[in-house]
């Protein structure tokens, strides 16, 4: 005999946990009307039961013992919202062993240990919902896994870290440096006290790992993703990008080229008239191209308690519905062995356009020397800007190249950086346009 309600327990009562609880309590009648049965929030477990969170919970809901929640036979779905690898991994594995379905927003955990977790879910014939792990309010997991199932996806790329996008937007619109923009992001709560995962591209790489596995049927490949952050971007580079008609964004890119997949996260120059160039602040946007639908762009808030909580609720409702219909099978269409023979393309073999900023002594022969080295490595110059004339002092020389191979560019820049007429290391950014 089926229970009248599906019971939920949340572990972690931070920003996302609070947002999820608010929606569950406020929208409980709407949820029941849409599902045909109630979803009941039985417990929230958190080490801090005293902190004010701006929400009034029913008596006895908030506890400080996650073990009690995990071992409660009445709880059907465990929502893990504490983040990090440990103890989140142990909590999720125990929930799965106990026959409970799991919903998580933990992209780092899935990207780095997802194979073990999904195998445990399959073994115990329970489900894992992870919509909230990527892009907050954008239902990109459901879109790729379900809505686009009739498509062969060739490209999926976009802005999937709101903190980095806020910083680059601030630098672009107000001409401030990276440190100033980061400090403001931290003051507003958009960046953590330790922002490493966001500004170094690691968070984006975690999310790209999940998206690429869903889109291309490849195993989780976090360690194979080329990852570069935004700490080296300067107002000067943003200014030159604008003069060429581009903007700089931190992009996560998964692109199929033949029998290979490119997986990379790095600052990228994209044309100002590209829709993603206009995605600013903490917003996310993801471009997907399929053989049936063609190009599609999805846009929305990528973080925050309520947007991410909304994604958590979506998973809870899907799993609750499956519990009632008996449709739960523990299969997730992700990281299944043998589903794809695609290989990860080495970063040194990718081809893209490049932005180059040299600091060079302004005297005869400088440009011919630099262009000669580039030419010897099969790199052709598309356009150039040279600023100022300072006798015996370095001035910026900026070039845009046609498409070139990464390996050739790295070798050319090593040679150029050794020239006596070049001061310091050359700044270079990859350029993507319509061909991405």
What does this structure look like?
With 436 residues, the protein is α/β, with parallel strands linked by helices. It has 3 domains: 6-136 and 305-325, 3-Layer(aba) Sandwich (Rossmann fold), CATH 3.40.50.720; 140-300, Dihydrodipicolinate Reductase, domain 2; 349-431, ACT domain (Alpha-Beta Plaits, 2-Layer Sandwich). 36% of the residues lie in helices and 25% in strands. It is built from 14 helices and 18 strands. It has helices spanning 15-26, 28-35, 66-70, 88-97, 107-123, 140-147, 162-174, 178-187, 196-199, 202-216, 235-244, 305-325, 366-376, 406-417; strands at 6-11, 39-45, 62-63, 77-80, 101-104, 128-129, 153-159, 226-227, 246-257, 260-271, 283-290, 294-301, 343-344, 351-361, 381-386, 394-401, 404-405, 427-431. Strands 7, 8, 9, 10, 11, 12, 13, 14, 15, 16, 17 and 18 form a 12-stranded mixed beta sheet that branches. Strands 3-2-1-4-5-6 form a 6-stranded parallel beta sheet, with helices on both faces. Helix 4 (88-97) packs parallel to helix 5, helix 7 (162-174) crosses helix 8 (178-187) and helix 13 (366-376) packs antiparallel against helix 14. The longest helix has 21 residues, at 305-325. The radius of gyration is 24 Å and the shape is elongated. The model has no long low-confidence stretch (mean pLDDT 93).
